[in-house]
Amino acid sequence: MIVELKSETNETRDKVELIDREREKANNSPWLEIKSFRIVLISTFTALAIVLGYLLAYIPNIELFTLTIFLSGFILGKRDGIIVGLFSSFIFCFFNPLGPSPLPLFTFQLFHYSLTGLVGGLSGAYLKKKEWLKKDSDMYIFSVMAIFGLLGALITIFFQIFSSLVGALSFFGTLNQFLPYFLTGLGFTIIHVIGNILGFIFILPGLIQLINKMLY
Fold first, then answer.
1. Residue among 9, 179, 148, 173 at smallest CA distance from 71
2. CA distances from 141 to 23, 201, 202, 207, 212 (A)
3. Are residues 19 and 96 in the same domain?
4. Would you say the C-alpha torsion 24, 129, 46, 158 has a positive or negative sign?
5. In this predicted model, what pLDDT tens digit does every residue of 23-66 receive, in sequence order?
6. Is 101 helix (H, G, I), strand (E, B) or coil?
7. Same domain, 15 and 45
8. pLDDT of residue 16
9. Which helix (H) or strand (E) holds 31?
10. Within this chain, do residues 96 and 45 fall inside the same structural domain, yes or no?
11. Residues 129 and 110 occupy one common structural domain
């Protein structure tokens, strides 16, 4: 009886895994299976993130850099999202028109934007498994917009808090100055968070739909 139950459980698990693999295969674009095409897309996303970063560099805390890196991970997957985040942040932050960041802050920026690409890839993998969201579905539905808005907020808040923490250590050499340092830029932090939430809610779904139409 126990052996039969275990056998049925294993068969059920195998069927579920097979369904997941078939669903994942159906959701993958044939273009993304071509290595050279993926390299082109990685280069394109990296260049786009850098260009948008430079274009908006002089507007305080309004940016599409984070959104572009997240988008690359969503479309290309976790590994390539990390690559785009790492390369684009290295070039943009090192050659920033406002000046390069101190080494500790620069290192954190590389980590943060690589993590943003990873989160984009994880989000894409999660949503592509949902039966209610097909590759040609309308992305402007409440559940998707809520997920994107929440992620945009969390990613930006994480960046603002920890960049201020690293900045306080870099400039003052002590954590005692973290709170005053963070509160000094609180207005810009709020603008940054709201700007990215709105971008993730209203711009990101449309870009995903547009790219999906070109890839499938």
1. 148
2. 21, 10, 11, 14, 16
3. no
4. negative
5. 555 456 788 889 999 999 999 999 999 999 999 999 989 999 99
6. coil
7. no
8. 46
9. none
10. yes
11. yes
Give start and end residues of each alpha helix (H) in the chain: 2-27, 35-55, 65-76, 78-94, 103-128, 142-172, 178-184, 186-202, 204-215
Domain with 160 in it: 35-215
d(CA 215, CA 32): 8
Whether residue 170 contacts residue 104, with contact meaning beta carbons closer than 8 Å, is answered with yes
Residue 95 is encoded by which pair of tokens?
Answer: 């050659």
Tokens representing 141?
């539905």
Using 50, 70 and 90 to split pLDDT, how confident is the model at 4? low
Does the pTM of the predicted model rise above 0.85?
A: yes
Whether 79 and 52 have beta carbons less than 8 Å apart is answered as: no
Is 91 in the same domain as 197?
yes
Q: Within this chain, do residues 188 and 132 fall inside the same structural domain, yes or no? A: yes
Q: Tokens in use for 50?
A: 């850098």
